[in-house]
Amino acid sequence: MIEPLHPTRPAPGGDAADVRAAGWLLGALGVGATVAGFVLLVPGLRHWMVLPVAACGVLVAPDLVDWVRGRLDVLDPQATVALVGTHFFVLAPLLHVTLDYWPRYLDPVADWRGALGTMAMLNFAGLLLYRVVLAAPDRVRKSPVVRLDYPRLQVLGLAVLTVSLAVFVGLVLGFGGLSGYLTSLTSLDRDVAGYGPVFLIADCFPLLGFVLVLLRGRNLLRRRPLLLVALVVVFVLAQFVVAGLHGSRSSVIWPVLIVIGMCHLLVAPLRKRTLVAMLIMISGFMYLYGFYKSAGADVVDLLTGDRSVGEISSETGRDIPLLLLGDLARADIQALVLDREQTRPDLAAHGLTYLGDLLFLVVRDVRPDLPDKVAVGTDLLYGPGAYDSGLRSSQIFGLAGEATLNFGPFGAVLSFIPLGLVVRFARSRHRTALRPGAPVDGKLLASALPMVVVLVLTADLDNVAWFAVNNVAVLAFVVVLARRRVPTRE
């Protein structure tokens, strides 16, 4: 898992243009072989939809090839988009047809394959814009004029950690002790709505504690990799107890991935095979945690042997296809939104859902009454008036899906421009953090960037904003306040 800390690996020998061309060629061949294999094995895929789906794969595959060949860092944000995008744009549409798996409890489109193909054409046009944005070279950043003041960071970090821990203890006592706290969260019998800001403060002390220990002992952790593994395991357990029982997998998964990024940038590089093993374990956690999210405390029956995984899966509707195509992809819901929008363009939100996505930051009593993603999405998916009748859609639409919800097909294509800009920014900061002697504060903040780009692609603006507030804001607040200016020569 651990190897000596080193800067970014240089590209293989040979002309850079030739190496890049080889990446495009290998990527195209890999995508072509994969799609051809699906078409040969699945008669339902002998349809024109596979052409734009394969074309999308050709546009994301070169970065995946460069990642496999070691030309991109294992956590490079551009490579992260390629890894997720391969499933998002290629495998997911193919698997939907292969498994005949579509959104539940929603009226289907007349032709799912045609809807997937049309959405793939929009994705292809958007990915072309994305590649154009990425093609411009990154700016050379000037040497930083600030450095992290470690004593100040320790004082600030401990102060915020103490407040957070005190709030958490107060929460536990307020629910009648640890057993009452756990019972309230798992049984869902007690109303915990309205505790959001309190949970936000109470949940941040495990990450702050990890950062303080990591910075203080990173030389020892570099020499003793088992200690680093133990520290990560302790953090995972603490994060699960403190935040994971709220019923949100992301409250565990995202902080864990941030911590992995910190270890990669500050202690020892992560190997690809280790990352793949971690992603498999995280996928397993998402699958099992889905039972807890749907069944609550009844999931304990799995541990006691009273019920099997298959029984709970059947009762809750949580299965592997739902994980792969519902939790980890948006192909079906985006195709459905596009189909609905084409028949009911009058329901387009014209950007209002983006404003609504950010209103959770405003106190409810003074919050303007604007249609949000839930209201617009419910009426689009179930029909006009569905939201007023009491129905609520909890769908996550993804970058292109929410853009379609607001501005139709044209918006879906243009939404890839901000994706490219975010990836360029994240790529630049990540690669700066990899340089020898890079500032520690930059490394700490850069550890969250791979997750940011994934969320921008796969989630909605409210999910991205919540990630920033819940997982980055407190750490950034402490790090920024702990900086000090370094005198520079004119």
Helix and strand arrangement:
Layout: H1 16-41, H2 50-68, H3 77-99, H4 112-135, E1 146-148, H5 150-174, H6 178-187, H7 196-202, H8 205-223, H9 225-242, H10 250-266, H11 272-295, H12 300-304, H13 309-316, H14 320-327, H15 331-343, H16 352-358, H17 373-382, H18 398-414, H19 416-434, H20 440-446, H21 449-458, H22 461-481, E2 483-485
Helix pairs in contact: 1-2, 2-3, 2-4, 3-21, 4-15, 4-18, 4-19, 5-7, 5-8, 8-9, 8-10, 9-10, 10-20, 15-18, 16-22, 18-19, 19-20, 19-21
Keywords:
single chain; 490 residues; mainly alpha; two-stranded antiparallel sheet; 69% helix; disordered N terminus
Question: Can you describe this structure?
Answer:
With about 500 residues, the chain is mainly alpha-helical. It has a domain at about 155-325. The protein has 22 helices and 2 strands. The chain has a two-stranded antiparallel sheet with strand order 1-2. It is globular, with a radius of gyration of 23 Å. Mean pLDDT is about 85; it is low at about 1-15 and about 190-195.
Beta-strand level of the residues, as a percent range?
under 5%
What class would the helix/strand composition place it in? mainly alpha
DSSP strand count: 2
User: What pattern of helices and strands is seen along the backbone?
Assistant: HHHHEHHHHHHHHHHHHHHHHHHE
Question: What level of helicity do the residues show?
Answer: 55-70%
Q: Summarize model confidence as the mean pLDDT.
A: 84
End-to-end distance:
44 Å
Largest sheet: 2 strands, antiparallel
Globally, the shape reads: globular
Which ranges are low-confidence, i.e. pLDDT below 50, for 5 or more consecutive residues? 1-14, 188-194
Task: Please state the oligomeric state of the protein chains shown.
Answer: single chain
Rg, alpha carbons: 23 Å
Number of helices: 22
Widest sheet: strand ordering: 1-2
